Amino acid sequence: MEPRSQATPRHADVCLVLEGTYPYVPGGVSSWVHDIVRGLPELGFALLHIGPKAGAYGEPRYTLPANVTTLAEHYCQGAESPEPVLRAELERSIRAMRRQKATTPSRTLAALRRLHLETTVDDALLDGLAAADLSVEAMLHGAEAFEVIREIALVRAPAAPFLTFFWHFRSMHVPLLRLLANPAPAASVYHSVSTGYAGVIAAVASHRAQRPMLLTEHGIYARERDMELARATWDDAGARVQILGCQRPARSCGSCGPRSSRGSRRSPITAPMRSSRSRTSTAGSSSRTAPPRTRSRSSPTGSMSTR
User: What is the 3-state secondary structure (H, E, C) of 10-71?
Assistant: First the structure.
């Protein structure tokens, strides 16, 4: 399904990039965003909301102020096929794709590799992400993507079961590819209220449009995903979960917290980019900002994180 847009599609002063929050999920972050938009009636705001799939949240829980020019929705999951795909047909499609050698290496795949194996964020990295030249099919079934995943696993999680790492990596990055393929609304400034998918998409949109980007982090996104992993029950009890950098057994990890017997069985979609503290930043400057005392934000999987 194509991303949905509504309201008047005109150039906005600010594009707010939101993930699992306003205007669909009530809570501290959504209230903060609503107050910002209402408090600046002289500015036009475009809302880019990232959700798990179409219809996951129902109708907006907030009445959009008159200065909201656009509500665009981008989804982590693709539309389900109305007809089941036969295994034999899928295998034929995969074999045909693998026979087609790419004329040039994927710049997006190279950028994803750099995100995990290097620490430098520069124009070349953003160029690669903005190129959006890696299809979901190539990520899922391509030999080049498999080699990159294997390399990252050997460097970043050598003691973790490769199969576990493989499925985690795919679940994290396939949604990112879908989001990168969709353009963001035009705006003079891009403002993301979290890191994770919203932060990546805002950074890429800012780079594509050559406009400034603002980041306000109201919680530690990667920390919340760590907590979701610690509570999950779908991995082996004794596995050492190193995928997000934790080197201790998941059940006994004091950093992530105890595992819950009622944890979600869905594979979490974890953060492609990590944050070490709450902060506000713009190009060339940064300053700390106190996070709200209460907050509620839904992750792209649809589960709720509350602090």
Answer: CCEEEEEEEECCCCCCCCHHHHHHHHHHHHCCCCCEEEEEEECCCCCCCCCCCCCCCCEEEE
- Enter the tokens of residue 199: 């932060």
Contact call for residues 19 and 50 (beta carbons, < 8 A) = yes
Over residues 145-159, the pLDDT tens digits come to 999 999 999 999 999
The DSSP string of 249-274 is: BGGG-TTT-PPPTT---SPP---SS-
Supply the pTM of this predicted model.
Answer: 0.71
Cβ pair 28, 296 in contact under 8 A: yes
121 three-class SS: coil
Structure confidence at residue 188 as a pLDDT band (50, 70, 90):
very high
| Residue 292 pLDDT level (bands cut at 50, 70, 90) | very low
Query: What is the 8-class DSSP label of residue 275?
Result: -
Q: Structure tokens of 51?
A: 């959700």
Residue type, 76: C
CA 36 and chain centroid, separation: 23
Name residue 42's amino acid.
E
Cα 125 from Cα 129, distance rounded (Å): 6
Nearest residue to 18 via CA among 298, 210, 282: 298
Contact 73, 95 (CB under 8 A): no
Backbone angles phi, psi at 178, to 5 degrees: -65, -40
Q: What are phi and psi of 46, to 5 degrees?
A: -100, 135
